[in-house]
Specification:
Tetracycline Repressor, domain 2, Arc Repressor Mutant, subunit A, 11 helices, 76% helix
Length: 222
């Protein structure tokens, strides 16, 4: 039994080392320039390990592109958000969205890799949009649609959703700027939890502003 546990631990460690090494090299050099040999050398793994754990270089890249962000949700239960008051629903939404930021340096490499993917696309970005980003957007749209009491989703609901998500996205793409100007905003897990709470509050104000805009627009049309 002990032997099996040790083997499982060694397998996990070897796979994790490959992910860590590949993340750094793919982020620095890109998919084409980073070789499987140098990835394995950096990870202290045999060249055949990539085939064993990931199938091929593309499989390794796919794992590196997604796994460091945390476990992906294949299905977002929108109903769990709709059963909550607006502030609480948005608070949970931002807490889940910002959770990967707690990984520090690793998440900075992930963002560097994602930026590189935009310049040298492999198709992984589109997969991420379909599997992760669109479901997140749809969940937020459902929250807004319910709170606004709309029979259907219009373009302004999408504009509002993109604007709300954009507040959180900045803390991913602008990590270096935030750290240079006000490092205490992101430097601890507690700080990131507070950030999620604050963003939820800001978002509630944005939703209230959209409610007022729609009321005024309706009056002008009468």
């Amino acid at each position: 039994m002990v032997k099996n546990e040790n083997t499982e631990t060694e397998t996990h460690d070897a796979r994790s080392r490959l992910i860590t090494s590949a993340l750094r090299l793919f982020a620095e050099k890109g998919f084409e320039a980073a070789t499987t040999r140098e990835i394995c050398e950096a990870a202290g793994a045999n060249i055949s390990a990539i085939r064993y754990y990931f199938g091929d270089k593309a499989g390794l890249y796919s794992a590196v592109f997604t796994e460091p962000m945390g476990e992906k949700k294949c299905y977002i239960n929108i109903a769990t958000y709709l059963d909550l008051p607006l502030a609480e629903a948005l608070g949970r939404f931002f807490a889940e969205f910002l959770e990967p930021l707690k990984k520090g340096e690793q998440i900075r490499l992930v963002m560097k890799l994602h930026f590189r993917e935009m310049i040298e696309p492999t198709g992984s970005r589109q997969q991420e949009i379909d599997a992760e980003l669109k479901p997140q957007h749809d969940a937020l749209v459902a929250i807004l649609k319910q709170h606004l009491g709309l029979p259907r989703t219009d373009a302004d609901v999408h504009r509002l959703a993109f604007s709300i998500i954009g507040m959180a996205v900045y803390f991913y793409v602008g990590q270096e700027v935030v750290s240079a100007i006000s490092p205490q905003v992101l430097n601890t897990s507690k700080a990131i939890d507070v950030l999620a709470e604050r963003l939820a509050g800001y978002a509630v104000s944005m939703v209230e502003g959209e409610v007022r805009r729609r009321v005024q627009e309706a009056r002008h049309e009468q």
